[in-house]
Write a structure and sequence with these properties.
alpha+beta; 18 helices; dGTPase-like; 42% helix; Alpha-Beta Plaits
Length: 481
């Protein structure tokens, strides 16, 4: 009972006379709403993925981003910071689309912005971080320079290499010229971003990774996302800049009234660096993990994976478990460090100092050898392997220079003149310096804190003639029973 008694479709004579239509293929950059997929993001709401974007998202190389935490090991200090490169990449894709939609709406005819341009910029936003290694920036800036001295490896360059590999491996249908432009947009702000294929529309290269002045949708997303994840307030309003941006002379310019909003973008980023990304305990954990990765590198060949995009995508944050479960006894030291991290037995923070303003220009990174050579007491003989040093640089994206000096503004939308604005024309309360250099020193063993702290103070006296740290190193408390 209840069975369907009609003929099967293939047995229906009427259906046999109908030639099935081939699947609809949309030209690059064009698609309809039926072919999009909605993904809900907790920062931006609904994000619509077009068919080509979905092809990339559904690859194992892109799905790997789910296993790369956006802020590496920061979650050990800020428990909510467990968001990943996957959701950040979707967010940048969406913001890139919003920026392009605004330009297309108000200046599309004037600039010749078409659906192909929109698609290309959105893909660059989606794929700009696929080349990140385990624990994000730690892999690139801390680990690789230790095992490959003079390394110029960058996640942007690896993203471009990996993109070629993904297209070939998964037979993704994208024209070679468009793929080339996507890769150029990804590396636009890095040392590899030297060429632009397009003879016109150079402003398109400033939307995802802006090497010209640092304002890009990548920052818009990670600033808002990181502030929310870490429970910090964020009063920077990226939508003002998205709605106000205007292309003048192949350069994205902003209303003069948004000067302080742009300044807030850079200062919020600097605050995140100071309070989250380079938090003293976050750096202690990172220094320990780098030591563990260096110890494990020879056995696991971690650095070798970074040279081949077809192999590199297999590296992610789960490498910690690979070290812990490895049967090789040579990894006992690396395993021991990771166990110390899990037990919260971190390298002991001794003290820090900010480099004096008049010494910033000629400052060179402090090394463990510098600390050891400054020891005067013979109570404990320090070795370089007993000391860890973190040299922190915090700026507004342009080193000692003010990034706002590279930005052009306009009076209002009826005005065709663009001009720079200097700080003194806006407020005398804005900072005169745009960079901080902070030196932090750690003892790898608790019993060496006093000796390392003393050597660190001696180094300051030798370099600057005075102690430049904020306060003396706290002495170990004596408990009375």
């Amino acid at each position: 009972m209840g069975e369907y008694c009609g003929a099967a479709p293939e047995e229906d004579p009427a259906m046999a006379l109908v030639t099935p239509l081939p699947p609809t293929k949309h030209p690059y950059g064009c698609f309809d709403r039926c072919s999009t997929k909605q993904v809900f993001d907790n920062l931006h709401g609904n994000i619509s993925l077009d068919p080509l974007a979905r092809e990339f998202v559904d690859t194992e190389e892109f799905q790997r981003l789910r296993d790369l935490k956006q802020l590496g090991l920061t979650y050990l200090v800020y428990p909510g910071a467990v968001h990943t490169r996957f959701e950040h990449s979707l967010g940048v894709y969406w913001l890139a689309g919003e920026a392009m939609n605004n330009l297309q709406m108000y200046q599309g005819e004037e600039l010749g912005v078409d659906c192909v341009d929109v698609q290309t910029v959105k893909l660059a936003g989606l794929l700009h971080d696929i080349g990140h290694g385990p624990f994000s920036h730690l892999f690139e800036h801390e680990f690789l320079p230790r095992v490959v001295p003079g390394s110029t490896w960058s996640h942007e360059h690896m993203s471009a290499l990996l993109l070629d590999s993904i297209v070939d491996k998964h037979n993704i249908d994208i024209e070679a010229d468009h793929l080339k432009i996507v890769k150029e947009m990804i590396v636009a702000s890095s040392m590899f971003g030297t060429t632009k294929s397009a003879n016109e529309k150079h402003f398109l290269y400033d939307i995802v990774a802006n090497g010209r002045n640092g304002i890009d949708v990548d920052k818009f997303d990670y600033i808002g996302r990181d502030c929310r994840a870490c429970g910090l307030g964020c009063n920077f309003q990226y939508w003002r800049l998205l709605q106000g941006m205007r292309v003048m002379g192949d350069e994205i310019c902003y209303p003069a009234k948004d000067y302080l909003s742009i300044h807030k973008l850079f200062t919020t980023r600097a605050d995140l660096h100071r309070t989250v990304y380079t938090h003293a305990k976050v750096k202690a954990v990172e220094l320990m993990l780098v030591d563990a990765l260096v110890e494990a590198n020879e056995y696991l060949g971690i650095a070798l994976h970074a040279q081949d995009p077809t192999d590199f995508w297999k590296l992610d944050d789960t490498i910690i478990k690979s070290i812990e479960t490895a049967p090789n006894n040579e990894l006992d030291k690396a395993k021991g460090i990771i166990q110390r991290i899990r037990r919260r037995e971190l390298y002991k923070f001794c003290n820090q100092y900010s480099v004096p303003k008049d010494k910033l220009e000629h400052f060179k990174n402090i090394t463990a050898q510098d600390i050891v050579c400054s020891q005067k007491s013979s109570k404990v003989l320090l070795k370089e392997e007993d000391v860890a040093v973190s040299n922190v640089k915090i700026d507004l994206t342009r080193g000692k220079d003010n990034p706002l000096e590279s930005i052009k503004f306009f009076k209002d939308f009826g005005c065709d003149e663009k001009f720079p604005i200097t700080d003194e024309r806006v407020s005398h309360l804005l900072p005169a310096y745009n960079q901080d250099r902070i030196v932090r020193v750690y003892a790898k063993k608790p019993e060496l804190v006093e000796a390392v702290s003393e050597a660190f103070e001696n180094l300051q006296l030798r370099m600057y003639g005075e102690k430049t740290q904020v306060h003396d190193t706290p002495r170990k408390r004596i408990r009375f029973h």
